[in-house]
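RETRY 2/3 - previous attempt timed out on the joint model. Re-submitting the same 613-residue input unchanged.
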Amino acid sequence: MGFDFKLFGKKPTSVVGYIEWLYFIYCITTGIYMLDPWERTVFNTCLILLLSMSFYTAYAFLPQHIFAMLSHFGLMDT
Amino acid sequence: ARLNRIHSIFGTVDGLSGRFVSVFNYFKSLFYSKFMKPLRNGNVIHDEPPRKRFQEDFESTPLYIAVVTYINYGIMIVFGFLRDFLRRHGFEKTHASTEANDMKDFVPLYASFESFYTRNIYNRIQDVFNRPICSVPGPVIDIVERQFSKSGWMFKYTGKVLKNVVNLGSYNYLGFAENDGPCAEASIESIEKYGVGVCSSRKEMGNLDIHVKLEQKMAEYLDVEACLTFGMGFATNSMNIPCLVSKGCLIISDGLNHASLVLGCRLSGAQIRVFKHNDMKDLESKLRDAVVYGQPRTHRPWKKILIIVEGVYSMEGSIVNLPGILELKKKYKAYVFLDEAHSIGALGSRGRGVTEYFGIHPREVDIMMGTFTKSFGAAGGYIAGSRALVEHLRYHSHSACYATSMSPPVCEQIITSLHIISSTDEGKRRIKQLADNCRMFRQGLKKLGNIVYGNDDSPVVPAMIYAPTKLGAFSREMLKRGFGVVVVGFPATPIAESRVRFCISAALTEQQLQDALDAISDISDLLQMKYSKKK
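RETRY 2/3 succeeded.
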């Protein structure tokens, strides 16, 4: 009918259907269900970039931060 | 000191401390009651006992769905700004209305939030609003299919018609929207006698005998002294409130009144104060302030105080607390204007409206207004009350003077449906069917776990959706399953409280309602709409 999400009818029970339904609920909750496909791509790209940068930062710097915090509070020898 | 002054005149709100009773008024009422007998139409006995105070349901919004709704609106607004930026600088073609090129330096016309909202949020789910139908709006309808493109800015008709979609959105409470049957045949005969157009206003040559007959029958049906009918329901409110109140008067209206009442109040020039929806304490405090303090700067007493309420509120599905309002009206000597647009024909054991539902005599309400659009399957409105009121409106109403009077086939439809409702078994069956359908549908919807607002007996059932994305998804999924529903969002409702409003009809069978409940259950599971904590 002019928009590109398929109409489910009812909650799907198969595995593939369940994953499609999870993406559908993600789109509904964040509001990108109402946007154009290219806007959805922009939003998803920004979100994935943000999340991947956060995870990389956590992976690279979190041990140092935890070590510094613990030694500041005197729970570990420096 | 201010409170003491109010308490000395009226007594405290609980009525326990000493009050001053006017001795003069008591003797006056004794003296006059022998000489003034009110005119009666019909011998209707009101023997239904007054109901106990009712409980209405307005479950509060769960926190997580409020957060989701605001996130939705936030993302939509961000992308709305992006699209507006692209449109303004020419990267994208503009389909919305904009100012003309030489007016671009003037004060902007399309920068308000309503305009932004319409362009960027409303337009994206436009395929769920304004669906064109091509059949009579009975229990099943045919919807013309449209294909939308360019995120809602363009559509074209595919040529297909979706047939037999179950109609859960029309105001067809008693099922009189039909194209065959006694009402339709009587309307056809009246066209053969009078034609379709009246070609004049009521005061000039447009006062037909069928109008007089309709008004007499309506006055008998409502058990009031007289009635006056108009061609359009919205115009009945907006054009007649200015005739009843004017500049030195006070209007106290409910917060959720319809746009026609608000427009009429504003046009009248009277001072308007708003009380919280169905809240008698708020109304009482506003009445007390009005009576004691009078007009704003001069403190002269108000010429009139008019309380405007509706019988059934169409967005909430709640019923007015009429016994409470009449108690306050008698205590503070105000007038009551009751707009029974949705409740006439739909409430009460004989379909006489909200006064019969509460067991109150209609003589106690000063001005009763209603429309013929909802339960009678026609168009137009009426105002009923005492003969003095109706004669005043007949000469002073803008609608009577300037607007064309009601078309004869419409009048005939109303007369026939009135006859069916009040005197035949078919009418009784329809009223009972509507009450059964309402109860069954509302209980069913509550059991599913949706949040449903309003009173248990009202024929309007709003179920909450809250998030705008779910609004669009719900309506599309229901249409795919073969049910046509009406979803409402901003600006008809508060921005975070969008809902789907089901209007129950006596023409819907129990099987259709059960199928509808099954479809709603499936789709509520799909969209995670079952928010209610009481189960």
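Chain B touches chain A at residues 68, 71-76, 79, 82, 121, 124-125, 127, 145-149, 151-152, 155, 467-470, 472-473, 476-477, 480-481, 522-523, 525-528 (CB under 8 Å). Closing ticket.
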